[in-house]
Amino acid sequence: MISHLMNNSVFSSAINQANNKNTSQINNAKNESINEKTQTDKSGKTSNSSRLEEIKSAIQNRTYKLDLKESAEKLAQELLR
């Protein structure tokens, strides 16, 4: 699966850019992201829990579908932050 992702030019480009960034910039972005996540309200947590339960159920029923291209692009965007 990793080799498939690395063959995707968008994903591999994002990985290379992320690896070339200054680590302090990456750490600051991660810290900001963590701070934002901790400020979510309880209703957000409830909806996340129900979404998680839906995903678990779909996986158990073997009906969950994963879009590799979209997942790789989202991962690449997260790495660029």
List keywords for this structure.
81 residues; single chain; mainly alpha; flat
Structure summarized in a few sentences:
The protein is 81% helix and 0% strand. By secondary structure, it is mostly helical.
Characterize the structure shown:
This protein has 81 residues and is an all-alpha fold. It contains 5 helices and no strands. The chain has helices at 2-7, 9-20, 23-38, 42-60, 68-80. α2 (9-20) runs parallel beside α5. It is flat. The chain starts with a helix and ends with a helix.
What layout of secondary structure does this protein have?
Elements: H1 2-7, H2 9-20, H3 23-38, H4 42-60, H5 68-80
Given the helix and strand composition, which structural class is it? Answer: mainly alpha
User: pLDDT under 50 segments (min length 5)?
Assistant: none
Order of helices and strands: HHHHH
> How many individual β-strands?
0
Proportion of residues in helical segments: over 70%
User: What does the largest sheet look like?
Assistant: none
Q: How far apart are the termini?
A: 23 Å
Q: Any idea what the shape is?
A: flat
Number of helices: 5
Tell me what portion of residues adopts beta-strand conformation. under 5%
| Mean model confidence by pLDDT | 75
Radius of gyration: 16 Å
